[in-house]
Design goal:
By secondary structure, this protein is α/β, with parallel strands linked by helices. It is built from twelve helices and eight strands. The strands form two sheets. A six-stranded parallel beta sheet has the order 5-4-1-6-7-8, sandwiched between helices. Strands 2-3 form a two-stranded antiparallel sheet. α3 (about 50-60) packs antiparallel against α4 (about 60-70). The longest helix has 16 residues, at about 205-220.
Length: about 220
Amino acid sequence: MPDYAAVLFRDKPVRGVIFDCDGVLIDSRDANLTYYNRLLLAADRAPMTREQEDFVHMASERQAIEHILSSEAAARYRELAAKVPYREVVLPLLRLEDGAGVVLTRLRDQGLRLAVHTNRGTGMWHVLDKFDLCDMFEPVMTVAQVAPKPSPEGVLRILQAWSLPPEAVLFVGDSEADAAAAQDADVALIAYKNPALRTAVAHVSSFAELETVLSAVSNLHNNY
C-alpha cells in the first residue's frame, strides 16, 4: 500500500475532511436528470442532451437552469418548478453511496471534523435528513451561503470555522469544479470516481477505498 502519510499529507496531521455531495456522498444522477427533464417538459422543451446532463450534474440549480432553458423560460422557473414537487418526485430517487454511513461514522469517531461544500441550495437539508446525516457534518456550505463552486469561498469558510490551515484538511470531490475550489483554497483533493481529475493527490472509486486512504489520517491525528 502507498505511504499515504508521506505522499498525501506531507507527514502533517489531517484533522478535517470536506465532502462534495452529488456524486460523492450520494448517487444523484438519475434524480437530477429526472428533475431537469421534468422542468423541460413543463416548459415544452426537448429532454437534455448528454452535454447538458453532464453540466447540470455538477452545477448549482441556478447555473443549471440558465444553461438548459432560454432566458424567457428561466424567468418562469418558479412557476415551472412548482409542477415538479422535488420532495415527492425527486428525493426518493437519491441513493446514499455504498458504505458512506459506516465510514463517515468511523471517521467522526476517530476525531476527524467533517463538512460539506455543495452546489445545492437549502434543499441540501432535505438530503441530509433523508439519510439521517444532519448531525454528521459541521459546517454545511451551500449556495445559499457562499458562491457556487468553482469558487473556493465555501472551502475557505470551512477552514475559518474550523480554525485550521489548508494543509490540515482534505477535500473529497468528483468534478472539475471541486478540483478548482480545492486548488484555489490550497487544500489537497481526493478524487472520487473520476480518474480524469489530474490535480488530485489520490483517486478512489468507493468509500471502502476512501477509508483505506483516510486510515493514514486517523493514525496521524491520534498522534497529534
